[in-house]
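ESCALATION

Customer reports they have been waiting on this structure for their group meeting. Please prioritize. Original submission:
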Amino acid sequence: MVTAHTENVLGFLAVLVYSATLLPSSLKVLFPTLKMNAFVQMLLRNQRTIGIWTFILSMAHICAVVSLHKMNLLRPEFYWQSSSGLLIITIFTLLTVTSNNWSIKRLKRNWKRLHSLTYVAALIMPWHIAAKMAGQWTWLTPITVSLPMAAICFYCIRRYIKADST
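Update from on-call: job pushed to the front of the queue and completed.
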């Protein structure tokens, strides 16, 4: 049986795993000594696999939400109320479908452009979490909101450092 706890845990795990795909690239630029860190190297090596796990956990979260709240997918209100989550999962779907060598070769430079959509998802995510958890925050909610925000901040600083060094 799906409970609100299950729904929230799946969402938290999805954000945690998602953060593991975003943070290593920025951390190695912001903190050069971490470049050789075994954990950071492992995350970088497995970034695509971790991203696919993000998609799987996000889909499980969606299934739990729809099941628990008995949402009617045929009603237009569902799409309006779920717009932030639907946009995030659309981005995750595109990223998952193109997380393979064939897509990298076929899309060439456009693959990187497409995969930069991950930062759009990271921008939407805190809004999605805060809106959906309104009135029922737990101790995990601020952490869940902060992780994608930190990833965006690190990304912006990383871009600034790279632009400044060229």
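Sent to customer with the following note: The two ends are 55 Å apart (CA to CA).
Escalation resolved.
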